[in-house]
């Protein structure tokens, strides 16, 4: 694919990110790739049928508009599902002898030395009749880079993986959340590989999409009971990308399965891109049960961790290309400037490898600056939570957070509550019903009234306008 097409795709992604917001972009578009650009059409691909269906149903016009801003002649977007690339032989997990700091993340760890991995039959993830979602044999504890932002998550995952049947479960469920490219899937698959190395344990790895399709297929074939029994007969259930779990009946079955496993002393490990309280589509009972275990956040990659990931990728590349070398100043430059996630770091190493091998030129700082310029993104704005808004507003107006959530209608509480609702709507991506639930279970029409009330007042009340701007600055600092 030409550099021109790639530059166009980079600009389109930038427009799309600005249009839908960073959270929505990370959830639905981060794994979308450009396949080709024709005269009047663009061919894009995503890794799963669920993503394709969701984007086609909710964002097709938005994607087309962003492309038309770049190429006005485009009148069609073709979105397909690309086949999952997997290796044939699992990498031996030498977790007790290997240095864990040599590792990286799923989103960090597709092997840099190969620009395209050969596709083959996916590796099954578990011993029971359900099969499971494909496992990547590279994603083990031995290949996970440990840093300040992921130490607790890695330690908790390893503790789960090293448990034995009959052991007391220390924390259940283990819930890991983080943004795109920070290592959630790597840890979950590492737990599965290590757990299934013990023949006495049954560990099953499923994506939320696989769980949904498995349950729906069981209903259609009237095998729902067998599906449930198979799920509840395992020792460790590992569910990835829980934010994609959709459908009331599917969520109800997941809730029943979760309760049955936990009550029976079986381990459940879950990953999502946000904490349980922010999974708006899930039933309150499920969110409450998830929050009752150990909830661990994997933070953003620090510079030292990014440098370690880069060194690991370059070392992996040398196993296939012995003459590939990236000077230390180039690694330092990449670690300082590519800050978003592990996938971007992996992409940077792939580009340097491709340029070096195809053009027979050594890697230099000038070449690196040119090849990775589109991976250098502006600093993301701070992610503001509704709880932060309530705390800051309560402090500003000398009321308590419980006052904001209460049914009190006195003037000294009503105005701060309306301001807090207004800020929640304007500074977060939360829906009106979700904001209402966070403010004492109020109806969405109450939130809408508050938002419109404050919007009208700030346009003519200078003092209130200044107060709102002050609150925004405090929240964004």
Structure description:
This protein has a five-stranded parallel sheet, with helices on both faces. It has a three-stranded mixed sheet with strand order 1-2-3. 50% of the residues lie in helices and 9% in strands. The model is unreliable at 84-129 (pLDDT under 50). It has helices at residues 3-20, 22-28, 49-58, 60-70, 151-161, 184-196, 208-220, 224-232, 248-263, 284-291, 303-318, 328-337, 342-359, 365-371, 386-397, 401-405, 411-427, 432-438, 444-458, 462-476; strands at 33-37, 41-46, 76-81, 174-177, 203-207, 236-240, 267-272, 294-297. The two termini are 42 Å apart. It is α/β, with parallel strands linked by helices and 477 residues long. The chain contains 20 helices and eight strands. The radius of gyration is 24 Å and the shape is globular. The protein folds into four domains: 3-81, DnaA, N-terminal domain (GMP Synthetase, Chain A, domain 3), CATH 3.30.300; 100-297, P-loop containing nucleotide triphosphate hydrolases (Rossmann fold); 303-375, Helicase, Ruva Protein, domain 3; 386-476, Chromosomal Replication Initiator Protein Dnaa, Chain: A (Orthogonal Bundle).
Write the layout of secondary structure elements.
Blueprint: H1 3-20, H2 22-28, E1 33-37, E2 41-46, H3 49-58, H4 60-70, E3 76-81, H5 151-161, E4 174-177, H6 184-196, E5 203-207, H7 208-220, H8 224-232, E6 236-240, H9 248-263, E7 267-272, H10 284-291, E8 294-297, H11 303-318, H12 328-337, H13 342-359, H14 365-371, H15 386-397, H16 401-405, H17 411-427, H18 432-438, H19 444-458, H20 462-476
């Amino acid at each position: 694919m030409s550099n021109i097409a790639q530059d166009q795709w980079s600009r389109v992604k930038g427009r799309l990110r600005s249009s839908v917001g960073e959270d929505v972009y990370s959830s639905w578009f981060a794994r979308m790739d450009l396949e080709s650009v024709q005269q009047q059409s663009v061919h894009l691909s995503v890794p799963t049928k669920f993503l394709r269906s969701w984007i086609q149903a909710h964002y097709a016009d938005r994607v087309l508009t962003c492309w038309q801003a770049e190429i006005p002649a485009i009148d069609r977007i073709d979105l397909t599902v690309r086949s999952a690339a997997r290796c044939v032989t699992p990498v031996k997990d030498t977790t007790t002898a290997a240095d864990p700091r040599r590792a990286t993340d799923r989103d960090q760890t597709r092997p840099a030395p190969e620009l395209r991995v050969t596709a083959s039959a996916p590796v099954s993830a578990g011993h029971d009749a359900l099969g499971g979602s494909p496992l990547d044999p590279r994603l083990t504890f031995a290949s996970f880079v440990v840093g300040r932002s992921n130490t607790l998550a890695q330690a908790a995952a390893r503790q789960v993986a090293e448990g034995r049947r009959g052991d007391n479960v220390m924390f259940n469920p283990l819930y890991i959340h983080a943004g795109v490219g920070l290592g959630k899937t790597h840890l979950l698959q590492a737990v599965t590989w290590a757990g299934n190395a013990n023949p006495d344990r049954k560990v099953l790895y499923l994506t939320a999409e696989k769980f949904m399709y498995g349950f729906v297929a069981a209903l259609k074939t009237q095998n729902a009971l067998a599906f449930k029994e198979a799920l509840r007969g395992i020792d460790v259930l590992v569910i990835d990308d829980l934010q994609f779990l959709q459908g009331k009946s599917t969520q109800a079955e997941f809730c029943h399965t979760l309760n049955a496993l936990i009550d029976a002393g079986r381990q459940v490990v879950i990953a999502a891109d946000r904490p349980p309280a922010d999974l708006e589509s899930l039933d309150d009972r499920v969110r409450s049960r998830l929050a009752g275990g150990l909830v661990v956040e994997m933070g953003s990659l620090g510079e030292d961790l990014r440098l370690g990931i880069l060194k690991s990728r370059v070392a992996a590349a040398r196993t296939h290309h012995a003459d590939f070398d990236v000077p230390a100043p180039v690694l330092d430059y990449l670690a300082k400037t590519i800050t978003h996630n592990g996938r971007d770091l992996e992409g940077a190493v792939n580009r340097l490898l491709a340029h070096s091998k195809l053009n027979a030129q050594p890697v230099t700082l000038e070449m690196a600056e040119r090849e990775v310029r589109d991976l250098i993104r502006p600093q993301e704005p701070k992610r503001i939570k509704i709880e932060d808004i309530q705390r800051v507003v309560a402090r500003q107006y000398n009321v308590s957070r419980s006052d904001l959530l209460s049914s009190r209608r006195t003037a000294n509480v009503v105005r701060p509550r309306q301001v807090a609702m207004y800020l929640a709507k304007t500074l977060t991506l939360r829906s009106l019903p979700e904001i209402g639930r966070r403010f004492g279970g109020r109806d969405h029409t109450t939130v809408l009234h508050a938002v419109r009330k404050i919007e009208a007042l700030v346009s003519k009340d200078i003092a209130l306008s200044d107060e709102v701007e002050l609150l925004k600055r405090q929240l964004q600092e």
